[in-house]
Amino acid sequence: MAEHVRLPRRRRYGVRALFVAATILAVAGIFAVFANRQLLNADNWANTSSALLDDQNVRTQISDFLVDQVYSNVDVQAQIAGALPPRLQRLSGPAANGLQTLAENRTEKLLGRPRVQEAWKTANKLTAQQFIAIAKGNSRAITQSGNAVVLDLRVVLLDLVRRLGLPGTLAGKIPPSAGRIKVMSGNQIQTLQNGASAVNGLSLVLPALSLLCLALAVYLARGRRRETLLGSGICLIIAGAVVLIGRNVAGGAVVDSLAKTDAVRPAAEAVWATGTGMLHDVAQATIVGGIPLIIAAWLAGPTKLAMGFRRNAAPWLRERPGVTYGVVAALVLLIIAWGPIPATRKLIPVLIMIGLVIIGVEALRRQVTEEYPTSTEEDVKASLRAAIASARGRNGHRTTPAPAADRLVSLERLSALHDSGALNDEEFAAEKAALKGGPPVPA
Q1: Is the whole-model pTM more than 0.90?
Q2: Which of 169, 253, 306, 315 is the most buried (most CB within 10 A)?
């Protein structure tokens, strides 16, 4: 194992500067990847809208909006009065109010029906395609009805009118502009197009630059590359944690600005949580990506547990690469099948993960070959027996002394293992004491 050295001052500060730059770039890259996937992908936009409709609080607000659209664009009371006998027309007002409450409750239930949800998803996907076309400069017109990007829910609105059992003439009186929600105005289009161009490029460039900074830091830290690899993993974890904390803090401010009343607040919180769910996933993936770097740095480190692992795994890592890679492949397949983060279910991230695992395994094999070039499986078994004997001695168990001739052979064997580095001083002393039948001798 390479001797640890203190880096020259300039190189030391250079590595630290690369750490800071990598963390900042990673944070910015997480937001860029989120924006690219969420805002510039029609399928993701539509799936998010469907997830929003699954929330009870959001459905309540949407149902209120749709029913309000009917009542604000059509004189429902007059329609009811016209259908009643002259003597009952005075009841048209209470009937209209009662029908409105009934319609809101009924609409909320209808929004949970597959057909209505599919219409909702289709409307959102069309809006997303319109939004993306404008953002990329591929649209000749802002919309067909004005200088704005709108979510057109008229199809959903008319379907609900029919499902509520309202008169057929009522649907024909709803104006074309009803049921439309403005997403953005025309004076924001240029800003959107500039931002979309930046997001498209930055979603690839920023993560690549962050990883490049970390790789350069590891390269420059010759003699302390293990510590630098550990620092790289910590940088990725910090970047992901900063985004998650920022998401929570910003969410409170955004919800406060949108929710003017307490009745709307649950829906606003649900919209924020669902709409930024992909941001949470990307940040979480960044944190998970930093954990293997920390584990790799720990496995290569000087701790007693890590050294024991390398010593015991050395014969298989060095002499049996097939067994080594078989075990590693099984672990990778288990992670992919588990799918703890969305990235483990996508081809390119999985291929990157497999490549990094192979590089890490080869580096570990090279290290154990240098540290334990002659250790065998028998050495490992002897080491494990010594550890068990040491544990039994600490727990007060007595061991039966071996015959003198056998003890002499065993002591010679232990000395050889100790000289080769297969046993450390503590293990050697414990096994020696066990052979003599006495308590373990402190190292």
Answers
A1: no
A2: 315
Tokens representing 331 are 């672990």
Q: What is the pLDDT of residues 188-226, one digit of tens each?
A: 555 656 666 677 778 888 999 999 999 999 889 888 888
Tokens of 324: 């080594």
* pLDDT digits 0-9 by tens, 358-375: 888 888 899 888 888 888
Burial of 370 per CB tally in 10 Å (0-12, 13-18, 19+): exposed
Determine if residue 57 is left, alpha or beta; phi over 0 gives left, psi from -120 to 50 gives alpha, anything else beta: alpha
d(CA 314, CA 302): 15
Element containing residue 414 per DSSP (H, E): helix 404-420
CA pseudo-torsion sign 200, 203, 209, 211? negative
For 409-416, the CB contacts below 8 A with 24+ separation are: 410/435, 411/435, 413/382, 414/382, 414/386
Residue in this structure with the two tokens 């609105």, named with its chain if needed: 157
Distances in Å between the Cα of 49 and the Cα atoms of 104, 313, 400 are 20, 50, 72
Structure tokens of 176?
């074309």
Count of residues in the chain:
443
Is the Cβ–Cβ distance between 70 and 76 less than 8 Å? yes
Neighbours of 424 (CB within 10 A): 17
Q: Rounded to an integer, what is the distance from CA 3 to the centroid of its chain?
A: 37
Give the count of beta carbons closer than 10 Å to the beta carbon of residue 293: 23
CA contacts within 13 A on the Cβ side of 291: 7
Cβ within 8 Å of residue 40, ≥6 positions away: 132, 135, 136, 196, 199, 200
177 contacts: CB under 8 Å, gap ≥ 6: 145
Residue 131 CB coordination number (10 Å)? 22
Domain boundaries, the chain: 1-301, 377-436
Q: Does 396 have pLDDT greater than 70?
A: no
Q: Which residues pair with 150 in a beta bridge?
A: 182
Type of residue numbered 15: V
Q: Name the nearest CA neighbour of 74 among 164, 172, 152.
A: 172
Q: What is the dihedral of CA 286, 292, 298, 299, to 10 degrees?
A: -170
The pLDDT, as a whole number, for residue 145 is 45
d(CA 189, CA 138): 12
Over residues 32-59, the mean pLDDT reads 82
Q: Token pair of 430, please? A: 């414990």
CA-based nearest residue to 417, from 407, 431, 406, 434:
431
